[in-house]
Design goal:
Number of helices of chain A: 13
CATH topology of chain A: Rossmann fold
Order of helices and strands of chain A: HHEHHHHEEHEHHEEHEHEEHEH
CATH superfamily of chain A: HAD superfamily/HAD-like
Shape of chain A: globular
Oligomer: homodimer
CATH architecture of chain A: 3-Layer(aba) Sandwich
Structural class of chain A: alpha/beta
Chain lengths: 339, 339
């Protein structure tokens, strides 16, 4: 249980300190003509070229920096790296959706201040839930059911819930340049994994359709599980024991445990991703670390070390010091979303 | 740590009770002419046809039993299913090899009765080590080093150690019919995983070369791990905490945790595989469970419920009751090994 407190602090920290600006306006910035020659059309020319140069360098058989296909492991954080994490992580939106969907069968929830608050129409005071409230929400919505029932709940949410800002299903509000990057790496023999602080079981429901990444290449936080057998058959039950929170130093440990190879390509956007970037950079092969910097308050959100959140501080400094690629989303992404 | 005792009982149980017969003689049984029409030439006709019928049924797009590629998950136990587990599991042979390789730097090991015994030339009294001795051997040889150092040790062993019975490197003493089955399933869109009680880090070193299964499709027992950073850089250290022993009910839990989908094809050879077979059989798709029965004392080993070991008893009964495929290795394998 020792990781659980930390895991629930994360959304709280994001909620409490984030100074992300938000606007409904879209810009014309993304409509610049796309160079037909680049394999990464939604990226600006400089960053696209830098990525392409690396990929060419490590996949050309005659290159001294050639990496065999078996060792072309790429890992990406999810929240804030492949899809937005503002104003709150989407997994919390799903969690509240689950509470709403089950409320009719649980009139007693009206007696619980946390659940009562969540059930109120237009609820938005996530900070007011406090760490204990968020913990209650997460455990109630993510454990105590079979994996099949949980999958079904996430599936309903991902099929129906709409991001109010973008008017699209959450699982379509994905960074188009990152989708292109994933496809580009896969086309060059990389095996691409998600390594996220988000729940593995949550992401696995829609990762294949959204990113073309199968569930068994999704590494994330996970709870305990138990194999149960009764008169109706067998199933796996999600339990609240043994919660593993896949963030910071736990990310390279999870890569070791789930993937078994040191990556050569890593994408992230926060201090939570620094350890896996350091791990990637420790590869004996030439490696590539990419850090998304959320700088576009018009098309997406802007938050970083200049805000109170401070959750991108160490990683940004280290990226700059070590010459990793820092992606300025405002200027480096021609388009942010496909829609 | 709660699983550790169990994990170390397994080799002990095998050692104590197994009545496996052993012989140096080979038979001519395997040299029967191979039907050119079968995709599984080392299998006898009946079992080969049964497997092919299933695969055709679930991969023909017009079949009512069609399974989409994304859901074609196959899982195989390793010890006794893909390679021999007699007279002792190969991982114990590696563990002793590691002790021998490090002994020169550790004269104090001569003061330890367990390590001293292991260091004796021609050591073979595994039972005499006792559960505590085996635990000491496993922890000493598998934890307290970086993942890189451990990988290197296993790599040296798998490149150099020779199975004394077959005169081949251990990682070539593989069941040829099972290799053909893995390739056959892969050729039909299945993603093939190992789900073994053996150590994941141990298997991952040679799984790609031996089976064509990459490390990230190898699920096994695992120890704790820690991300460490010092003046020389970063690395992942294998620790003795949080040992997960991937056997019995822990196998479906590990499939849930690592793969995230219920398999449709499962191969095993012992009661330790029963839970993952039951889990596979719970798939809403038509499933296929295959249980290897070690019946060939001439070409391999013979051990089962008729011996004292009893470690294939429940699974054999359930396989027979539910009509799963029980593979009689003596008659159903035309060839057992490729050499």
């Amino acid at each position: 249980m020792k990781h659980l407190r930390h895991s629930l602090w994360i959304p709280l920290i994001v909620l409490t300190h984030s100074c992300a600006e938000r606007t409904e306006n879209k810009t014309d910035q993304g409509t610049a003509a796309v160079a037909a020659t680049t394999p990464l059309p939604s990226w600006s020319e400089g960053p696209a070229q830098r990525i392409a140069d690396y990929v060419k360098r490590v996949t050309s058989e005659k290159s001294v920096d050639f990496i065999p296909v078996a060792d072309r492991i790429a890992v990406f954080d999810n929240d804030g790296t492949l899809w937005p994490e503002q104003p709150v992580p989407n997994q919390l939106v799903f969690a509240r959706h689950w509470i709403l969907s089950q409320a009719e069968a649980h009139p007693e929830w009206q007696e619980d201040p946390v659940l009562k608050a969540l059930l109120e129409p237009g609820f938005s005071d996530w900070i007011g839930l406090g760490a204990e409230g968020l913990k209650k929400l997460m455990l109630k919505s993510h454990t105590g059911m079979t994996e099949e029932a949980f999958h079904q709940s996430v599936s309903i949410w991902s099929d129906t819930a709409i991001d109010p800002r973008y008017g699209q299903p959450y699982t379509r509000v994905l960074y188009q340049p990152m989708l292109e990057l994933i496809d580009y790496l896969k086309a060059h023999g990389f095996t691409v994994f998600i390594v996220s602080g988000g729940g593995a079981d949550f992401m696995r429901v829609w990762s294949e359709e959204a990113y073309g990444i199968p569930p068994f290449h999704v590494v994330g936080s996970y709870t305990g599980a138990e194999f149960v057998s009764d008169s109706t058959g067998v199933s796996v039950l999600k339990t609240a024991q043994e919660v593993y929170f896949d963030d910071k130093a736990a990310k390279p440990v999870a890569i070791h445990r789930f993937i078994g190879k040191v990556p050569v390509f890593c994408g992230g956007n926060s201090d939570g991703d620094l350890a896996m970037m350091q791990y990637t950079a420790s590869s004996p092969y030439p490696s590539f670390c990419l850090l998304l910097h959320h700088t576009d308050s018009v098309r997406e959100y802007a938050y970083d070390l200049h805000t109170l959140s401070g959750h991108l501080e160490e990683a940004l400094t280290e990226a700059q010091n070590r010459g990793w690629m820092v992606v300025d989303m405002k200027t480096d992404f021609r388009e942010i979303f496909a829609f």
